[in-house]
């Protein structure tokens, strides 16, 4: 069964390398025709220096041709997912569309599975998420992810199609839990980065991670997710990785906020938009999300680290 990956950034390219290295034919699509031509000629990817692209990867900038594959991995930033799907004229009837992005769409306030369902209602949406860095996947280092699909039979098929000797997928039917865990952990990674950047220490970071996990679970369960999903790879696992490693863009962005430094505007920071989206939702639904609200205030420059810290520490004492 054919596989195409839409999005030739670091993560999409890494997935292509992992699948091709396991002997699977893969097509990798990117929007910039010049960049894709250079990748085809050099077998090198600008976002993954030092990684050779196997010959089993077909590189293309023709989206209508690529979109004919039975399984499409959508490895683009969350805020561009809707536009990408609308760029594809075909209805994608019965095809499997696996979102590899983590976040909540600012325009609709929904996760990637709903964006897929609304743009391509005849397709089958799924989500691939969990603790992973693109370079680790491309180098063949052991990685475990969650593959969530509401259709258990199709989820089982995707699990076997996309797993490799070094990339182990665990399947789930809890799509809401998987995608919200992946989205919300980015917000907490910004908070933890700001904590360390401001010199508040590891103990404060541990507190943020723990209370952040409680906040993630509370929000996700409100939307019908299973708490067990949040305790798995797509929630707690991804939280642990992104809140402690400088390879995480969200964590590095938070560090810059904590230090009062600028950050590269060309680097995608999914948690920034997600913080704004969940804060708006929380206000409408009277949900308590103090850490997400604090991160949104930092991102929008409505408050300083010192101010949000004071707000968090002055909250009423309560039971855990």
TrEMBL record:
Enumerate the active-site residues: 185
Gene Ontology terms describing biological process:
carbohydrate metabolic process; glycerol-3-phosphate biosynthetic process; glycerol-3-phosphate catabolic process; glycerophospholipid metabolic process; phospholipid biosynthetic process
Q: Where does NAD(+) bind?
A: 7-12, 134, 249
Instruction: Provide this UniProt record's keywords sorted from A to Z.
Output: Cytoplasm, Lipid biosynthesis, Lipid metabolism, NAD, NADP, Nucleotide-binding, Oxidoreductase, Phospholipid biosynthesis, Phospholipid metabolism, Signal
Q: Chief subcellular site?
A: cytoplasm
- EC number(s) in its UniProt entry? 1.1.1.94
Summarize where sn-glycerol 3-phosphate binds, as residue positions. 102, 130, 132, 185, 238, 248-250
Q: Where does NADPH bind?
A: 11, 31, 102, 134, 249, 270
Q: Which reaction does it catalyse?
A: sn-glycerol 3-phosphate + NAD(+) = dihydroxyacetone phosphate + NADH + H(+); sn-glycerol 3-phosphate + NADP(+) = dihydroxyacetone phosphate + NADPH + H(+)
Principal EC category: oxidoreductase
Primary role: Catalyzes the reduction of the glycolytic intermediate dihydroxyacetone phosphate (DHAP) to sn-glycerol 3-phosphate (G3P), the key precursor for phospholipid synthesis.
PANTHER family documented for this protein:
GLYCEROL-3-PHOSPHATE DEHYDROGENASE, GLYCEROL-3-PHOSPHATE DEHYDROGENASE [NAD(+)] 2, CHLOROPLASTIC
Write the protein's name: Glycerol-3-phosphate dehydrogenase [NAD(P)+]
Q: Specify the species.
A: Salipiger abyssi
